[in-house]
Amino acid sequence: MLTICPYFHVHQPYRVKKYSVFDIGQDTEYFNDASGTDMDNRFIVEKVANKSYRPTNKILKELLDKHPEFRFNLSFSGTVLDQFEAYAPDVLESFQELVATGRVEILADTYHHSLAFFYSVPEFKRQVLKHERRIKQLFGVKPRVFRNTELSYRNDLAKWCEDNGYIGIMAEGWEKYLGWRSPNFLYNPPGCKKIKVLLKNYKLSDDVAFRFSNQGWADWPLDAGKYSDWINANHGNGQTVNLFMDYESFGEHQWEDTGIFDFLRHFPDMVMQHPDTSFKTATETIEAYEATGEYDVPEILTWADTERDLTAWIGNDIQRDAIAATYRMEKDVMSTRKRDLIETWRKLQTSDHYYFMCTKWSNDGDVHAYFSPYKSPYDAYINFMNALSDLKLRVDHVVKEKAVALDATAAKAADALEKTPQTPLEKVEPDTDPTEPPAKDDEPPAEVEPAAEPSKPFFKNVWDRLKKIFPLVSPERKST
Amino acid sequence: MKVLTFSWEYPPAKNGGLGVACFGLTRELLANGVEVTLVLPKTQETRGDARFLFADTERLVRMGENEDLLFGPYNQASTMIESIIGYDATGKPIYCSRSIMEEAHRFAHQAALIAQMEDFDVIHAHDWTSYLAGVAAKIASGKKLILHVHATSFDQAAGDNVDPSIFKIEKESFELADQVVTVSNYTRNIVLNKHGIDHNKVTVVHNGCDAEEVKELPPTLVELKAQGKKIVLYHGRISIQKGVDYFVRAARKVVDVNPNVVFVISGWGDMMTQVIDQVGAMGLSEHVRFAGALWEDDRDRMYQCADLFVMPSVSEPFGLVPLEALQHGTPSVISKQSGVSEVLTHALKVDFWDVDEMANQILSALNYPVIGQQIVKEGKLQLLQMSWNKAAQRMKGLFQNLIQYATS
Lengths: 480, 408
Fold this sequence. Notes:
The complex is a heterodimer of chains A (about 475) and B (about 400). Chain A is of the alpha/beta class. Chain A has helices at about 40-65, 80-85, 90-100, 120-140, 155-165, 175-180, 200-210, 225-230, 260-270, 280-290, 310-315, 315-330, 330-335, 340-345, 350-355, 375-420, 460-470; strands at about 1-10, 70-75, 105, 145, 170, 185-190, 195-200, 240-245, 275-280, 290-295. In chain A, helix 1 (about 40-65) packs across helix 2 (about 80-85) and helix 1 (about 40-65) runs parallel beside helix 3. Chain B folds into two domains: about 1-210 and about 385-405, Rossmann fold; about 220-385, Glycogen Phosphorylase B (Rossmann fold, 3-Layer(aba) Sandwich), CATH 3.40.50. Chain B has a seven-stranded parallel sheet, with helices on both faces. The longest helix of chain B has 20 residues, at about 390-405.
């Protein structure tokens, strides 16, 4: 028995429009380019919908209707779902139809396609929960298997997933950590008892995702028959072949004229001509097979480049500076409790922004081989940092306003306290008041971080007493 | 292989990019086993191991030290320069004013004589002031000719309003040459589209750069630095080609946002008065400093003290200055209308006319110092790939092709 576990990742970022120093403090919209170019998010979603999402979903639906054994997995970033909803609702509906068959599993992910796990676990968790709610709302399912941005993975991420109830997690099947072993089995992360790792068979995955249209490749042209033979050659040498790739491989990375759609249309038929080959979703795979060993990944592993690391995102100084500046704002952004500020900040966490600043290839003049809407990595950085600087101004403004308001309240209350005997106050139980109202703004309470401490230590003592009387403004309220 | 080379400029005389390029290329050609005989228009000090001939010695006429000759090839053809043509009985020099055009013709006349006396395989002439010399040498010797285009009349005019007499020399010489080499694709396109030369004849050999470790010099502008001012530097000729007026307009926009910036303009040229007037009219006197023409250590100290270098050229065939700045650890904003932007990835690039974007890039580079840090770090590595040796090897290949073609 050999099963195939295909997984397609669907994602579009909110690209930052041309945003100059002179726009800081003037323009609070960073993602609304309407130029009809590669910075125009609506334009891109519509373009890719026509080239990839619509035709591919049509084929996938036909395949599901035709083959009761056919199964696959999808993962969506929240940012692509939001853009489908706004720009191409029919695409979202077609995905919902696929999921409604019960044979298409949705994986857990970060909402904003971010690298938050490596910078702020609390923020990461909030994004995962937000993603989970969104998937529930749109598809009515709760993901059980996790995959992280760019398939980034590390032992501690697997542990986090186990602790948070996931039964499986996806990772690259990389020789450095596999050694002689095959990616076509399940493994356990070290220190975990239940969760299993599904490893990408990068050779077979990349044959489709990257090499399919490469005429210089010895095996070009690839047809479904030849590819099925390669897959079926794994009988006796594995249990599951995990084919992980970008959904946009179909029609966008590999254009229609390469024959990619015909390939997809015929693949299930051809591969299942072998009587013992079938398909499984991620959950089915995990439930069907036992782990055969330990997959120990102490350093960050991704599915990118020959290095399989994050250097395309955080490999140079401007990238590291930009991402550090983004996460430095976390405390202040969260303390504003303003949904629009938090959401904008999160959109700026999407990994693509940092990828556009990559200079890894530019020394070979090869930068154009990698898609970027910006003219150079430096332009991308300047654009991003200007937008981030504007956001920071807006956040600082709110933080300052709140601090002033709190000071005023505290001063007033301090006056009142002077005239009141203090003993009864000690009896008031803090933090457990069931009548505590939700946050003033509409950010769901589950996501809200503790508010910032009032800025002036002078009021600290007054504050400690005050919060016992006024839980409404308590800064100590625990988040989830 | 013996090459007879004609050039108008050569170090250590104070000169622009042409002299630097000739020097770098000649040095590396010699290192690659090419024998170079370099002919210069007048007797001067020289540097390096090439064999030198001077086109004024034949007539025993020495030209005087003359600052006007400094940027000779970039002046209008009718610009008058003064030369010493002899000495009177009391030993006083006799001056004669001639136009650059007349000098170029005199150079050509001498070139024909030299070509008949010298033994060589191929002729190589740099820029329009030497084209006539190259053509004359070709006619006199029957040897193949390569013209090397470091600039065209279109760059100097910063538009289509070119000096017709220079254009005529360029076009006719290109047509007579066996091969035309340009320092960038940018310039190649001008030669193809404006001069109408057959594209098979025009090849790009990008300039190189000497990636030697520079010495740290005593700081300059210390009082400004002590006040926490940021220094943005322009260095080059002050002429319409170089776009200094756009630089000043960007400066206004920068200072409106960040008054803590001082713009230093180093150089001299025919637009000097206009630029000074513009600075006054825009109320920028406090924020712009004119440093005069800086050379050698003074120039390098300025490179080292600047936080950012700007090359706003309207039309720049190559543009070595951002590479020099980079060697001194200073990042650059460079015009996209330049050859160097084809080979230097690590710089901020802007259309010279887009003053808003230029200001945006200047402000951003000052605001986010990590940009400069990264540009310098990776840019220095890229400099190592841009050696004169690479350019010389390409040239040697072109010489070989022509010689083979000539003998077969």
